[in-house]
Hints:
265 residues, alpha+beta, Translation Initiation Factor IF3, four-stranded antiparallel beta sheet, three-stranded antiparallel beta sheet, 4 helices
Amino acid sequence: YIETTLNLTYGSASFPFERMNLDTFYVQMPVNADSVSFADVQQAYESLFGNITAQYHAMAAENKQFIFCHLRPLENQLKNGSETWEMVSGVGEGPINLFTFGLNDYWKWGLGWINMGGYCGGPYAGTHTDSDAAYEIAKKVRLRKPVPTGNYSYIAPFVNVEIYPEYYRNPNDTIIDNIRDFLLFRSVNWLPNYTQCIPPEDMNFYLSGVETIIYNLAKPAGLHFIDLNLIGDYSLGTPNFGYIFHGGIINYGTLVINPDPPMDL
């Protein structure tokens, strides 16, 4: 009831966005004889709606839209007492950039999340350290995402799929040499051609590769792509960033026609 009502009333699957702001909220509901009273459900709804509204208005972007939320029990099953539920909410920020990578798009593979990323070549080298190749690829994926025209929303079931390079070999590359070996970026320092800097042509290759994963290789039957959380990461077991890669989570959901446009938050 809570998840579906929020998604159908305020969510939109028809809004093109470049960035997704995800937040997580928690709510407790009293349980008696394996059931929850309508009054408690309504109270939980109001609490979560307030959180989503605050999340939405906290974003500085002028062009934004609540996209979806997913509610699930944090504990196992209904029981007497109190049960905690977790909600993940996503608000999208409208697109501002180009659809492919240009001649100056040399990006450090990762570490933008600790302000150690940025451009690693070309005229902008050393700038934009709060971003990285993984983050920029994910932005382009959102820009290029097919968006249905009209009024659509996402509802359950929702599925999250984890992706890592080793899951998706490049079928056109038979030699493991750190050159486009996988559809996702990976570079290891015990092989030739190790690099932390991804040039423009490879940025576009990995953009195409992750889209192949999203829309074909990882896609659950009957579900639609919502968003991608892609991170430029490294193995803690290999010193000096000797094993670096892109990995992440793809969010899928059920797309439905909504007779009404989303209400304002």
